[in-house]
Design a protein that fits this description.
heterodimer, A: mainly alpha, two-stranded antiparallel ribbon, two-stranded antiparallel sheet, B: alpha/beta, Rossmann fold, 7-stranded mixed sheet, 6-stranded parallel sheet
């Protein structure tokens, strides 16, 4: 029998997908109510994280990191809620939120590149700044009022299959964005530049790759992704609140790492973070189905991340020793 | 590498298989409960009351989900309850808005919902009953106590430490308090900030307020829960003021630690908010499962406790007199 050999670089993502499939199967067997169709529930509950994680993945691929994810999402939700309450329409609210998120990402990217600031510290400052701005918009939570545009989107742009499955429009947005991001990272020059910068920034500069422009573009796209994740979150929860999503940047990073992307950059696939998000969501869902204390999901995620980091470490060592022997 | 993956997957499989596989028993009542979190003594007492009530009712099978004070965790938990096809869903919402869609899903799945402790601001036809305290009345009782015991001054300044922004208890206690002091113009709330119902944040926010001009000259602290008041008492002591004497301290909940402080003279009054909701809640849940009608609003029985005793703080329908706190009362407290 021919043994199926997976190329080394695909091993992490293969591992992620296998973990997902095995745990999903266990879920179907063991839990009443958890079935093959539960994947739609997972998408429904985790699309906002998935959209934000695409931005985080791109940033991490350049070798950077972004801690402002949760704050931008919270700011987006409270901004949309406040505009709707003040009488604006949903289209205006969403466009403004996306514009501000993109602008914020652009500013972060510029500061990081032109002043050579460490991304961890700069985005940490960004995180505090945006969270504060969210509280300035409104201190307490504001329910998201329905208006004509809102209702149109929610009622007409969601797909219902049978009586149990709903595919809300933000799930569709996520899938579309995911496909676009995969094509962007694998098939465009800008995408390849991102990988090159993450792998070795000095070598990339010497090769003539426009490092500055690429990095700023990456953070800008990331800002857009976070704001879009915020829009999805707003539709999902119908509540705007400056205190939403505290610590969500850590979930996004965990999803990206579990999805097989190396934290040092240059290695990994956007497709991996899709499964990373699903694994995270699956673990939390099954812990709830089981009735275990919710702290267990964090313990398991922590252990899982450790396993994946070890795996990535070993793969890097093996591939380095292989290239030496050439 | 392959060994690692296999070991992890085997371990995961073993854990889940051992803990989980079970089928439904038609004689039992399956209940899904989503609790706010474990942020305060009061909340923990509420959870313990629920667990004790279930322990005494062998026909109830409960799935308990702790939301860690995050609304999205509650929505995920309720969705999993719907998929599990439980008989009754019960939850205490972290904030009052944003639950309409998930309640509609529960209604579509024909699963009745009983809300406890905090209210949701949504179409009342989406849930069967609300079991819990009347937060507005708690705010009113605190205000009535203050009016009955106000210092002899022309202007009485109140600092308010409110609860989690957007939550029903915070909104309603503030409303009830403001409603009653309106008739007494010399009492005014000069500062109102949220301490998020926790001791740590109560202390932090109070420390900040004490640095401001309003914080240097005020007479009363009204805290929406005992935990925040206890944190604030430490902050007040740190700046050299004497809580209970220089500053009148009024709060809500009625936990043991607060009783101790009132007995020692460091605080003045606490309005009871009964967390021991387990027995009442499960009586209602069992009635709902059998298909009996239940009243849409089921209030809890609560008193008011202080260091003086005998002060009238109720209203015409429900007169309530304060009870003086003694060591015996503290020893007899369940929480």
């Amino acid at each position: 029998m021919k043994t199926f050999k997976i190329p080394l670089r695909y091993v992490p993502i293969a591992a992620t997908i296998s973990v997902f499939c095995v745990v999903y199967l266990i879920g179907i067997i063991c839990y009443d109510g958890f079935g093959v169709l539960s994947i739609f529930d997972l998408l429904q509950d985790n699309s906002y994280l998935g959209i934000a994680a695409i931005g985080t993945a791109l940033v991490i691929l350049t070798g950077g990191i972004d801690l402002s994810v949760g704050s931008v999402i919270a700011f987006t939700t409270i901004l949309i809620a406040k505009i709707l309450v003040a009488g604006g329409n949903a289209f205006l609210a969403i466009s403004l939120a996306l514009a501000l998120g993109t602008l914020f990402g652009f500013c972060q990217g510029c500061l990081i590149h032109y002043f050579s600031l460490p991304p961890f510290l700069l985005t940490l400052a960004g995180m505090f700044f945006v969270r504060g701005c969210a509280f300035v918009v409104n201190v307490s939570d504001v329910p998201i009022k329905r208006d004509a545009v809102f209702d149109f989107v929610t009622d007409n742009l969601s797909i219902s299959i049978g009586s149990e499955i709903t595919i809300s429009f933000y799930v569709v947005v996520y899938i579309v964005l995911l496909i676009a991001a995969i094509i962007f990272s694998q098939r465009t020059r800008a995408g390849r530049n991102i990988y090159a910068i993450g792998d070795n920034e000095l070598a990339a500069t010497l090769m003539g790759i426009p490092v500055g422009r690429t990095k700023i573009m990456t953070y800008t796209i990331a800002g857009f992704c976070y704001a879009l994740g915020g829009v999805a979150f707003a539709f999902y929860l119908k509540s705007g609140y400056a205190s939403h999503c505290v610590g969500m940047e850590m979930e996004a990073i965990a999803a990206v790492v579990i999805g097989g992307t190396l934290l040092t950059g240059g290695v990994g696939y956007i497709f991996g973070s899709f499964f990373g998000v699903l694994v995270l969501g699956l673990i939390t869902a099954l812990i709830t189905y089981d009735g275990l204390d919710s702290c267990w999901s964090r313990i398991i995620v922590g252990l899982l991340m450790l396993v994946f980091i070890f795996m990535q470490n070993m793969i890097t060592k093996i591939s380095k020793s292989k290239s030496k022997s050439h | 590498m392959n060994k690692f993956a296999t070991v992890i997957m085997a371990a995961a499989a073993a854990t889940l298989l051992v803990t989980a596989c079970s089928k439904k028993d038609p004689n039992k009542t399956y209940v899904g409960i989503s609790q706010v979190g474990a942020e305060s003594d009061w909340r923990r007492a509420s959870t313990k009351s629920i667990e004790d009530a279930v322990a005494q009712r062998p026909q109830i099978v409960m799935t308990f989900a702790d939301a860690m004070q995050k609304q999205e965790n509650q929505i995920k938990a309720i969705r999993s309850f719907i998929r599990k096809k439980v008989d009754v869903i019960s939850f205490s919402p972290v904030v009052s808005s944003g639950f309409e869609d998930i309640l509609k899903e529960a209604k579509k799945a024909n699963i009745p919902v009983v809300i406890f402790d905090r209210a949701v601001d949504t179409d009342p036809s989406l849930y069967v009953s609300l079991v819990g305290s009347d937060f507005t009345e708690e705010g009113r009782r605190a205000a009535r106590w203050l009016i009955a015991n106000k210092p002899a001054k022309d202007s009485i300044k109140v600092i308010e430490l409110s609860g989690t922004a957007g939550s029903a208890p915070a909104i309603e206690r503030q409303k009830g308090f403001a409603e009653i002091i309106e008739s007494t113009p010399e009492i005014k709330v000069v500062v109102s900030q949220s301490g998020n119902f926790t001791r740590v944040e109560g202390k932090k926010v109070m420390e900040n307020i004490l640095q401001t001009p309003e914080g240097k000259d005020f007479d009363v602290l009204f805290a929406h829960n005992d935990d925040m008041a206890l944190g604030a008492i430490e902050a007040i002591r740190d700046v050299g003021k004497v809580p209970g004497k220089d500053i009148i301290i009024i709060s809500v909940d009625g936990i043991k630690d607060m009783f101790q402080e009132i007995l020692k003279g460091n605080a003045n009054c606490t309005v009871e908010c009964n967390p021991l909701i387990g027995p009442t809640l499960f009586d209602v849940i069992e009635k709902v499962k059998k298909g009996e009608t239940v009243p849409p609003r089921i209030p809890s029985l609560e008193g008011v406790f202080d260091s003086i005793g005998g002060i009238e703080v109720g209203n015409e329908e429900t007169p309530v007199q304060t009870t003086k706190i003694t060591q015996e009362i503290i020893d007899g407290r369940a929480y």
